[in-house]
Amino acid sequence: MLKVENLVVRYGAVEALKGVSLEVPDNSVVAVLGSNGAGKSTLLRAISGTHRLHRGRIEEGTISYGAAGREASQDRNGGLSRIDKLDPAKTVSRGIVQSPEGRRIFGRLTVDENLRAGGMNSSASKSTRAETRDRVLTLFPILAQRGSQRASLLSGGEQQMLAMGRALMASPSLLLLDEPSLGLAPQIVEQIGEIVLEINGMGTSVLLVEQNASMALRVAQYAHVLEVGKVSLSGPAAELAKTDQVRDLYLGHGAEEISGTAAVGRSQHLTRWTG
Ligand SMILES: Nc1ncnc2c1ncn2[C@@H]1O[C@H](COP(=O)(O)OP(=O)(O)OP(=O)(O)O)[C@@H](O)[C@H]1O
Ligand SMILES: [Mg+2]
């Protein structure tokens, strides 16, 4: 489980996060919605330890992470330990991997080489790495077909799949996805949503940052709305989809169609933040 508490992140004079708290339970998909500049990428960067590369600073708050299980329940902190001081490589070795905003694939490298780069820091054995690769290629058959092709020649949707596949090569227990649907046709966005569910089905939790609320709320169990650095609304995804705030800001027409299948049967509790 990931626990973010009262996180304040600043870039010089800009306070990008003003006290954000949220949790990602084990084996869940949690969405963070918000418009441009709300602080979504900053949140993911702080979790992955990459905020420093953008001259960001965590001024207050904590980020903790830990795996569930017997060990966890015996631990005083429920198996959680602080990760907010770790560098990005250490965060990856704890099982947290980010697929960054804008995909950031290596355009001059082939699809295969990009995937290999994703698994490079893994301490797993050769056979385990081969298994991971097989799983990634099963999830994204297009990457198997295009293995020797330069990544820059892939379509936008294929590049997004490569970015996700590359992140999965590190066998994360928590995958951080920054706007995977950005700039993609509706059909491809649907496909990305399905893939997020499959990734989650394989036992990886996903923290999904999106402006595409209809996709995010369909695949997530729980969601938060981020507005200028603060969480303004939190709740089960299906409940959030019904609120006027989310409908007006992010869903537009056709909001009725979102049933939030993943969220059915979860708690009916919605929290509105006033602070
Ligand atoms: N490297 C940086 N230096 C200075 N300010 C930054 C930097 N990165 C982000 N910011 C500022 O921090 C705030 C949050 O930015 P962030 O990129 O986290 O938002 P976002 O929700 O991801 O937006 P978008 O949807 O456009 O990607 C914005 O006001 C932005 O201008
Ligand atoms: Mg962003």
Low-pLDDT parts are 253-268
Strand percentage, roughly? Answer: 15-25%
What's the CATH first level of the largest domain? Alpha Beta
- Strand count: 11
Radius of gyration: 18 Å
Q: Helix- and strand-based class? A: alpha/beta
Query: If you average the pLDDT, what whole number results?
Result: 88
Number of helices: 11
What small ligands are held by the chains? Answer: adenosine-5'-triphosphate, magnesium ion
**How can the largest sheet be summarized?**
7 strands, mixed
Protein topology:
Layout: E1 2-11, E2 14-24, E3 29-33, H1 40-48, E4 57-65, H2 70-74, E5 81-82, H3 88-93, E6 96-99, H4 111-119, H5 126-139, H6 141-145, H7 156-168, E7 174-178, H8 186-201, E8 205-210, H9 213-219, E9 222-227, E10 230-236, H10 237-241, H11 244-251, E11 271-272
Parallel strand pairs: 3-8, 3-9, 6-7, 7-8
Antiparallel strand pairs: 1-2, 1-4, 4-5, 9-10, 10-11
Helix pairs in contact: 4-7, 8-9
How does this model look, in words?
The chain has 275 residues and is an alpha/beta fold. Helices cover 35% and strands 24% of the residues. The chain has a 7-stranded mixed beta sheet, sandwiched between helices. It has a 4-stranded antiparallel beta sheet with strand order 2-1-4-5, with helices on one face. The longest helix is centred in the last third of the chain and has 16 residues. The chain binds adenosine-5'-triphosphate and magnesium ion (MG). Adenosine-5'-triphosphate binds next to strand 2 and helix 1.
